[in-house]
Design a protein that fits this description.
12 helices, elongated
């Protein structure tokens, strides 16, 4: 990622610095032991250009293509698990894999193989997301932030946890026995937590707010939020 960023900026000095810090081909010991340092640097520079050629003419390679080029040029050391992935993909390679490097669980290797089908652009977007530079965020992650315009996406089927349930909050899913017991005892319920989460997400907007809810019961959802007094009928639209 840093190498790609400097390539886009055409910063050759920084490209050289990144390679010097990360490539075993020109680490301090290798340079000290090589009798023809200038030739070595020229060779490594050619390998760098070969790797970066994957992005020529606005191309965007797959991650497996980047990995294959790194293996081909030997520009950077490849982690053991990715060596195994390359072997499984029948990529020609000069490196040998030790017995203790082939012990990865098959599910792990399959996960790597699937992830390496991704386009490099997806890594760029993911990097922006984890560094909070993208236009997307989780309902929990935006707490304390403000934006002129906000769109809140609600889809219980895509949520990974069980602490919140918008379907229950909107009356589309019945309460569990535990929910009812907690209500009777005055304890916090998933509906309470979801209500606070909903407030956090919606209150991030300074000027305008749009809420998109995915459900199999759109008519019921519309009826319930109107009956609760949360929205007026003129504010709601069902798109099938």
């Amino acid at each position: 990622m840093p190498l790609h960023k400097t390539y886009i900026k055409k910063n050759k000095f920084e490209i050289a610095n990144i390679v010097k810090q990360n490539s075993h081909l020109i680490d301090k010991q290798t340079l000290q032991n090589d009798d023809n340092k200038l030739e070595l640097l020229h060779t490594v520079n050619g390998k760098v250009n070969e790797l970066l050629s994957l992005w020529n003419e606005d191309n965007c390679p797959l991650l497996i293509e980047v990995l294959e080029k790194i293996q081909e040029t030997n520009l950077f050391k490849i982690p053991s698990v990715l060596k195994v992935v390359l072997k499984r993909a029948d990529v020609d390679s000069d490196f040998e894999i030790e017995d203790d490097e082939t012990s990865e669980d098959d599910d792990v290797l399959k996960a790597w193989e699937e992830s390496l089908k991704a386009n490099f652009t997806e890594i760029i977007r993911y990097n922006e997301y984890v560094n909070e530079e993208s236009k997307f965020g989780t309902h929990q992650g935006v707490k304390g932030l403000e934006f002129e315009r906000v769109m809140v996406i609600i889809d219980d089927e895509e949520s990974k946890g069980f602490m919140f349930s918008y379907d229950k909050l909107f009356g589309l899913k019945p309460l569990t026995s535990t929910d009812k017991k907690n209500l009777d005892e005055g304890k916090e319920t998933g509906i309470d937590r979801t209500m606070r989460l909903f407030y956090v997400a919606c209150s991030r907007a300074k000027e305008s707010l749009a809420i998109v809810g995915y459900t199999d019961l759109p008519e019921e959802l519309k009826k319930n939020v109107i009956n609760n007094g949360w929205f007026g009928e003129e504010e709601l639209e069902i798109i099938l």
